[in-house]
Design brief:
This protein is α/β, with parallel strands linked by helices. The chain has helices spanning 2-34, 38-66, 95-103, 125-131, 142-147, 154-166, 184-189, 202-212, 233-239, 266-291, 305-313; strands spanning 70-74, 85-89, 111-113, 115-116, 136-137, 172-176, 218-225, 244-252. It has one domain: Glycerol-3-phosphate (1)-acyltransferase, CATH 3.40.1130.
Length: 314
């Protein structure tokens, strides 16, 4: 009974916090639409990001006030709030967005996310994300694209449009590379070579690198884990039962592994796939230690990269 009451109060707090944030951010977005002047655009972008920072700060206060959390944060000393980053992270729960935006708000520019287009219509959330210029992805099915080939570039155009606006102020664009939350059911049913992760999908990362590459200062690789709340971390967080959060941060340089034309250069495409698979393999082995798995993950390496492309991009 007490858990449910606490959950209801926390949901109310988050809703009110998000509603006020959405209204403020949307006001700045409307000013940007009405006054397309450079100084106004930059000022409104900074104000919107500051409002988002306040939202994250209140969420962090709520997390610590309602949960006795052991924060295990590794790395991040070499990132800055004054640079542009693409962040890659594994995805476990709705709690991920709250955790990432809260714990990293003073270490790097405010996080922006690839979002499903349906979220645009969620009250308050969709409005706030629209005001913050986050890209909404349609993720058309293969069948839809066969019938409507002219819509093939919808997601790329959405990312490209958002990235144009991101140039106004330092930004962190977050990509959950697995494309969905990796819960126990999905891990059990998916044909994944990893113990704790789903296969990485390269499309969103490739699109973002293509659009943002020239202004990016690095790729931030984040590994998230809730070792004592694996079943329902978001619900546990709202009920005050979250006990430990692990966040590991690694900065990758913009080197030959990530700099190139993914869509036309086959050699670069192969190199990028190998780099991403290697990064995911190392992440999975690290999660073995976090979850206390005795036997390290045995991840098969792919000898024929072109075959891997077909499997991952289906």
């Amino acid at each position: 009974m007490l858990d449910n009451l606490r959950m209801a109060l926390n949901v109310l707090f988050v809703t009110i916090n998000t509603a006020f944030t959405a209204l403020a951010v949307s006001l700045f977005a409307l000013i940007k639409l009405i006054l397309p002047i450079s100084v106004v655009q930059k000022s409104c972008t900074r104000l919107a990001n500051f409002t988002f920072w306040c939202w994250a700060s209140l969420n962090l206060w709520m997390l610590n006030a309602n949960n006795d959390i052991e924060w295990q944060v590794e790395g991040g000393e070499d990132i800055s709030t004054k640079q542009w980053y693409l962040m890659m992270s594994n995805h476990l729960s709705w709690a991920d967005i709250v955790i990432l935006s809260s714990i990293l708000k003073d270490k790097m520019p405010m996080t922006k996310y690839f979002l499903k287009h349906e979220l645009l219509y969620v009250p308050f959330v969709g409005l706030a994300c629209w005001g913050l210029d986050m890209p909404f992805m349609r993720r058309h099915s293969r069948e839809f694209l066969l019938r409507n080939p002219e819509r093939r570039n919808d997601d790329f155009n959405a990312i490209n449009k958002a990235c144009t606006k991101f140039k106004l102020a330092p930004t962190t664009l977050v990509n959950f590379v697995e494309g969905t939350r990796a819960n126990h059911e999905k891990l059990a049913s998916a044909k994944t070579p990893y113990r704790h992760l789903l296969k990485p999908k390269t499309g969103g990362v490739a699109f973002a690198l293509s659009a943002m590459g020239p202004i990016l200062d690095g790729i931030v690789d984040v590994t998230l884990a809730y070792p004592e709340n694996q079943t329902s971390p978001f619900e546990d967080m709202l009920k005050g039962k979250m006990t430990k959060v692990v966040v590991r941060i690694k900065l990758h340089p913009m080197d030959e592994n990530v700099n190139g034309n993914y869509f036309e250069d086959k050699a670069f495409k192969r190199r990028f796939h190998n780099w991403l698979n290697s990064t995911w393999k190392e992440k999975d082995v690290y999660l073995d230690t976090v979850y206390g798995v005795d036997k390290p993950s045995e991840v098969e390496t792919v000898d024929e990269p072109d075959v891997a492309y077909k499997k991952q991009e289906q």
